[in-house]
Write a structure and sequence with these properties.
single chain, 24 helices, elongated, ABC3_permease_C, alpha+beta
Length: about 675
């Protein structure tokens, strides 16, 4: 005999009326938003790793039986890195396969450039850029397979095996060359290296932090969607339970209905993700925008996210029915107000102590830090309803106005529901506090206007110094040229020549170009080279902070508006009774806002302060101070976020008016 659950669930869904349809549409909308954002986060995570791997071929992988010599060098135009790969086929060896993005192994004298570099070569004076490369009648083009982003500046130069540019050992340039991965030389047999570029190496790790930060509010939003219409659903299923339905049957009906609604919304979000892929690819991160294919997660992951969102909504909906299964009569009479226990505070304190002890011990891995961040979010989610409950009781004791008393009563009657309204912005407050006032940077290595050329010995440095003066004079660059044994300036332990250029950035670029052939196999470099690894990491963190703030506040606003609308639908009987008793609509609306403002001020203020404290601790590690501009940004973020939340809650005012228009019929 087939189960009656699907037919009964379908019948009840169709007979749920206009109010039930509103709840279903809101739930589907929340599922669509959650699915879309989770797919974007998944795409960014996998895409950042994939495009980092697209740069690995440029770092030579040594092979003693190799067939070609490959060198990696990095030069800069302003603060934009230009990756230079030189290749030379060794005589008498097998033909080396073509590098990614090229149709064949480059012949001596051939120069291939990325489209972005070709555009710069066309627009920039030759003495600032083009003269750094061999003169050719026309440049070849590096295809997408050899690039990580459309904006990348990459050049591949074919050379003869006897050319000093490849035959001279390209030793790492000082401290930063050794650890920055911008210079290398090896005999290779192909281009299957595993060491990714310094300009993409931190991308995946940073994105994973962003995923952890943003995914929590998104999951909260999806879980809130499962609770839409919870009060109405409880009343309806309590009647079925009293009529003889088993707990398993009412759980199955709820899960089935919620899963179908969630799946429909999640599929809509997945469709939106597919349609928005070209637009998402235009969002810059790190080295530039994206190739669209790198942001496609694949059908298995797309279906997995849809199933996850639908399952989350179904589970969230079923968890609201515990009281229906245990005491259906109490639900029907609305005689079981929610209560929270002190154990929530104890567990929160225990988690904070663990995080503090673990972080203070030092040496935590990136995975441990990510786990601690998730633990902090989970602990705060556990504590939130308890704080709301106590806040409602304290407010009720000292309330002097009817709106405040009504708000306090709602906080104590349903602390979990009130917490869900503000939880998004509360968790976003930590993100805002951490990323706005944080100031992670290394200020000890600043060498403005310096252009350095390393040499193999101090004697060669003295000879190169005289030649450098001649080259700079011929190029029209005013500079003071000195010989360094590596103990001062930008060379960091390597003997060489340092030119202190007077003038603007174009003068520095001209100096770099003029000195490019000074020492074969040694490209001149500037401060941008010395700080590349640090700048790449801090730059990604800054971009992550901006993106995480924007998405977190958007999700928080959507979650607040969604939950506010759901609360109006769930409490329509209470609101109708209050209207019948003569309560003005403005008073009810004012109570709704105070019900939001009270926990928001206390809890969002707490998480924002926690974020500021965490940023302060990180700043201490880097011996930096709180960012003054970041403090102003924080104030703006909190203000705009609060106003957006109030606007989202205010958007449900027409719904409040609608459910109380005919109070005599509604409050049956």
């Amino acid at each position: 005999m087939s189960s009656p659950v699907p037919q009964l669930a379908w019948f009840l869904a169709r007979r749920s009326g206009r109010r039930g349809l509103h709840s279903q549409l809101l739930a589907a909308g929340a599922a669509a938003v959650g699915s879309l954002i989770l797919l974007v986060l998944t795409a960014a995570y996998f895409g950042s790793g994939a495009r980092a791997q697209d740069t690995a071929w440029r770092t030579p992988a040594p092979d003693r039986h190799g067939t070609a010599v490959q060198t990696l060098g990095t030069t800069y135009l302003g603060d934009r890195p230009v990756t230079v790969v030189s290749l030379a086929q060794l005589p008498g060896r097998h033909t080396t396969p073509a590098p990614p993005g090229l149709t064949g192994f480059p012949e001596p004298g051939q120069v291939y450039v990325s489209p972005a570099l070709a555009d710069l070569l066309d627009k920039t004076p030759a003495n600032q850029l083009a003269d750094r490369f061999p003169k050719v009648s026309s440049y070849g083009t590096i295809g997408d397979a050899g690039l990580a982003a459309p904006e990348e500046l990459v050049a591949v130069i074919g050379r003869d095996a006897s050319d000093p540019a490849v035959s001279t050992a390209a030793e790492p340039l000082g401290l930063f060359g050794q650890f920055g991965g911008q210079t290398a030389r090896a005999v290779v047999s192909g281009f299957d290296g595993t060491e990714v570029s310094v300009f993409t190496s931190a991308d995946k790790a940073v994105v994973s932090i962003g995923v952890a930060i943003v995914a929590v509010p998104v999951i909260v939003l999806a879980a809130a969607a499962g609770r839409l219409g919870a009060a109405r659903r409880e009343q309806r299923l309590a009647a079925l339970r009293l009529a003889g339905a088993t707990p398993r049957q009412i759980l199955a009906m709820t899960g089935l209905e919620s899963a179908v609604v969630g799946a429909a919304g999640a599929l809509a979000g997945a469709l939106a993700y597919c349609l928005l892929l070209p637009a998402l690819a235009e969002i810059p991160f790190g080295i530039g925008t994206w190739y669209t294919g790198r942001l496609w997660v694949g059908l298995p992951w797309l279906l997995a996210v849809v199933a996850f969102v639908a399952g989350l909504i179904a589970v969230s909906a079923m968890t609201t029915l515990r009281q229906v299964a245990v005491s259906p009569l109490g639900v029907a009479q609305q005689a079981n107000p929610s209560r929270t226990r002190l154990v929530r505070l104890v567990l929160f304190a225990a988690v904070l102590v663990y995080i503090y002890v673990t972080a203070s011990s030092g040496g935590t891995s990136a995975r441990q830090q990510l786990a601690m961040l998730l633990m902090f979010y989970g602990a705060f989610w556990l504590l939130g309803p308890w704080v709301v409950d106590r806040l409602g009781r304290i407010t009720a004791r000292f309330a002097r106005r009817p709106a405040t008393l009504l708000a306090a009563r709602r906080l104590t009657d349903d602390p979990r529901g009130s917490w869900r309204t503000v939880s998004g912005l509360v968790l976003a407050g930590f993100v805002a506090g951490f990323f706005t006032v944080g100031n992670v940077s290394i200020d000890d290595y600043r060498f403005p206007g310096q252009v350095a050329v390393p040499t193999t010995s101090a004697a060669k440095a003295r000879t190169a110094t005289a030649e450098a003066r001649t080259l700079l004079h011929a190029a029209g660059v005013k500079a003071t040229v000195t010989t360094s044994d590596g103990d001062d300036g930008i060379l960091f332990g390597t003997p060489g020549v340092i030119a202190h250029v007077s003038g603007s950035a174009p003068q520095v670029d001209t100096a770099v170009t003029a000195l490019s052939g000074l020492v074969p196999g040694k490209l001149p470099y500037t401060q941008a080279y010395a700080t590349a690894e640090n700048d790449a990491f801090t730059g990604r963190l800054g971009e992550l902070g901006t993106a995480a703030l924007a998405v977190s506040f958007l999700v928080a606003t959507a979650s607040a508006g969604l939950t506010a609308a759901a609360n109006v639908l769930d409490r329509r009987r209470v609101y109708a009774l209050l209207r019948l008793a003569g309560t003005p609509l403005k008073l009810l609306d004012r109570a709704r806002f105070r019900e939001t403002v009270l926990p928001l001020v206390v809890l969002a203020g707490g998480t924002t302060a926690a974020g500021i404290y965490a940023a302060f601790q990180v700043n201490k590690l880097f011996d930096s101070t709180i960012s003054a501009s970041g403090a102003m940004t924080l104030a703006v973020c909190v203000t705009v976020g609060a106003l957006a939340m109030f606007a989202a809650i205010g958007a449900s005012r027409p719904l409040l008016r609608a459910v109380t228009e005919d109070a005599a019929q509604t409050a049956d």
